């Protein structure tokens, strides 16, 4: 890519800026509107710029020129390195990088951060991210959860500025990009890290002789704001949340705040995960990247998969899956597209996708980008974070049967399991805020309101906790609010048949559960597609499930949303999961035929022998299939 025109623009702006900086310094020093400087036998009016290649010693010959070739090379390298970074999308699952231009879609932003919503009726207006950055007269903070598209958007903006494309075609702003993750321990004692980093891109020295003949270095950092203002830059500060230590974060925040106040022609754009930037800055607007809508998801899939026909097949499969809600986030949708490209299908086991998303958000997304986040509360380990979130999901779900929670709900749930993680009651909100910043799985979604990033992830985490519990509550109130979670628990168990039988025969208070529970439970079980191994225990469990279902549907006279034919189809699908000749299983070791029947498809069986592990019912309706 030819960026010589941009380097030429930089040199022109730099010359103008440095002239103004130097002239201002000389006027301040000598109180004159025009300064003449004696240089050997030459007199130079401060127009053009005075730069010396080597001024370490006054005894050396001083050469006068406008800019050094080293300076030109430094900025040229800065642009080229970041163009290489900005033109591609990459992550571990991709065999080859994808071109940004091939897959980029415009993202929307909420004009106010979601965490500041007053309630469900507070509809935060949206706008296009690129429009906001292009049109705003203020500096911009772009917030977003992990994988929302913050860095990808900054790649697009930087690339568009360099190429003079899209909305930036007529702008002559000088692009400067700083990836804040690049700050390390060597920068710990730097008071002005942004200034030092930018000046490293313009690493040249300015010298003049004052009227007494002494050699004076005019340091740009003493006039940094003026210098930035004159070069009319768009300065991208990507990844505030990725700064490696709190000292540097505080320094960057302090300097960002000052620059927002002092810069009016140059513009700052800073990105951060939502939980890590909760500050109000004068002359700066905060915007949060919105979830993808249906049109954006469709456009995204078409760009990644190449054709509308292929993308529609993919989206139809996604819509039929329980993890369809996860596609509102670009990083999840991109991974699903790659999986589909490779296999021409999506995994039959939803567990694979749930684990992929959790691994990405808790660990792998940061690991792939060499980012380390230290926990104040000793929740550094992947399994520790996962275990905490699973406890949180289970208690919130079973206590409040909701997907959105108040601070009171959160504190109540936290207090139930805090001791497992050696936490104190007053740690609650701080721990939750840290986990949001580290993982983006449980987030603040309004003033005093919290939720999991996707309902399917809340369900999966709850299922993880249930599968690891040694004791399980048989309270109908608890069980009735987690039908999906129990179906997932069965699917992810090491022995799905055993787990299914245990729940149906030993743990479900069968006649006390509502009809809606069974409908959701069976539907989700079919979707999750557990690996069942046909056995007498499994057939008894399935027939007992059908039997209880029949009693409920009879007693409610088939409510409109619970049609009997729908149940029959659900049961048939459940039977098909067995993939065995159902009627060939012999129950003679446990039951005998009474000879009574209510229909030609049902045999009335009576128990002749108890089971050692499961509570077989005394009478069982055996449904012939």
Largest sheet: spatial strand order: 6-5-13-7-12-11-8
Low-confidence stretches: 26-69, 208-213, 554-564
Query: Measured on Cα atoms, how large is the radius of gyration?
Result: 33 Å
The biggest beta sheet reads: 7 strands, mixed
Span from first to last CA? 68 Å
Report on this structure.
By secondary structure, this protein is an alpha+beta fold. It is about 45% helix and about 15% strand. The chain contains 22 helices and 19 strands. The strands form 6 sheets. Strands 6-5-13-7-12-11-8 form a 7-stranded mixed beta sheet, sandwiched between helices. Strands 14-16-15 form a 3-stranded antiparallel beta sheet. Strand 9 and strand 10 (about 215-220) form a beta hairpin. Helix 2 crosses helix 5, helix 13 (about 380-400) packs across helix 14 and helix 18 (about 485-490) packs parallel to helix 20. The chain is elongated. The model is unreliable at about 25-70, about 210-215 and about 555-565 (pLDDT under 50).
């Amino acid at each position: 890519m030819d960026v010589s025109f941009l380097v030429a623009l930089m040199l022109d702006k730099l010359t103008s800026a440095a002239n103004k900086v130097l002239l201002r310094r000389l006027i301040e020093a000598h109180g004159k509107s025009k300064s003449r400087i004696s240089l050997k036998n030459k007199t130079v009016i401060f127009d053009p710029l005075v730069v010396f290649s080597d001024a370490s010693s006054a005894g050396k010959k001083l050469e006068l020129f406008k800019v050094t070739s080293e300076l030109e090379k430094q900025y040229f390298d800065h642009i080229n390195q970041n163009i290489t970074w900005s033109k591609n999308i990459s992550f571990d699952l991709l065999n080859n990088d994808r071109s940004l231009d091939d897959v980029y879609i415009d993202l929307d932003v909420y004009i106010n951060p979601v965490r500041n919503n007053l309630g469900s009726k507070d509809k935060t207006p949206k706008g296009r991210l690129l429009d906001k950055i292009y049109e705003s007269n203020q500096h911009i903070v772009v917030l977003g959860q992990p994988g929302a598209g913050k860095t990808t958007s900054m790649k697009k903006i930087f690339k568009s500025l360099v190429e003079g494309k899209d909305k930036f075609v007529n702008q002559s702003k000088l692009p400067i990009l700083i990836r804040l993750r690049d700050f390390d321990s060597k920068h710990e004692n730097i008071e002005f890290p942004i200034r030092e980093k930018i000046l490293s891109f313009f690493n040249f020295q300015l010298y003049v002789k004052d009227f007494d003949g002494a050699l004076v270095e005019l340091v740009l950092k003493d006039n940094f704001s003026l210098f930035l203002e004159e070069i009319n830059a768009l300065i991208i500060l990507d990844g505030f949340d990725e700064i490696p230590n709190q000292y540097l974060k505080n320094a960057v925040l302090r300097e960002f705040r000052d620059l927002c106040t002092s810069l009016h022609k140059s513009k700052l754009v800073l990105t951060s995960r939502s939980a890590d930037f909760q500050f109000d800055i004068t002359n700066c607007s905060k915007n949060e990247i919105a979830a993808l809508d249906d049109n954006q998801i469709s456009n995204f899939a078409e760009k990644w998969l190449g054709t509308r026909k292929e993308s529609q097949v993919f989206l139809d499969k996604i819509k039929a899956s329980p993890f369809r809600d996860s596609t509102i986030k670009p990083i999840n949708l991109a991974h699903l597209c790659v999986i589909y490209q490779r296999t021409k299908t999506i995994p039959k086991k939803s567990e694979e996708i749930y684990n992929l998303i959790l691994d990405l958000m808790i660990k792998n997304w940061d690991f792939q980008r060499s980012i380390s986040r230290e926990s104040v509360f000793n929740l550094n380990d992947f399994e520790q974070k996962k275990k905490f979130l699973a406890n949180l999901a289970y208690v919130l779900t079973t206590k409040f049967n909701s997907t959105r929670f108040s601070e009171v709900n959160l504190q109540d749930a936290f207090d139930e399991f805090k001791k497992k993680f050696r936490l104190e009651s007053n740690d609650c909100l701080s721990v939750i805020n840290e986990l949001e910043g580290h993982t983006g799985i449980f987030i603040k979604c309004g003033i005093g309101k919290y939720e999991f990033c996707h309902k399917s992830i809340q369900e999966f985490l709850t299922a993880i906790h249930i599968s690891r519990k040694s004791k399980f509550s048989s309270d109908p109130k608890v069980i009735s609010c987690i039908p999906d979670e129990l179906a997932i628990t069965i699917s992810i168990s090491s022995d799905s048949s055993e787990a299914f039988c245990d729940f149906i025969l030993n743990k479900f208070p069968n006649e006390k559960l509502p009809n809606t529970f069974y409908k959701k439970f069976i539907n989700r079980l079919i979707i999750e597609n557990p690996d069942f191994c046909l056995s007498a225990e499994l057939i008894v469990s399935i027939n007992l499930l059908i039997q209880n279902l029949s009693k409920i549907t009879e007693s409610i006279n088939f409510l409109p949303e619970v049609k009997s034919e729908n149940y029959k189809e659900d049961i048939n699908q459940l039977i098909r999961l067995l993939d065995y000749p159902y009627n060939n299983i012999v129950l003679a070791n446990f039951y005998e035929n009474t000879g009574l029947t209510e229909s030609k498809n049902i045999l009335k069986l009576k128990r002749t022998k108890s089971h050692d592990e499961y509570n077989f019912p005394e009478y069982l309706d055996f449904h012939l299939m």
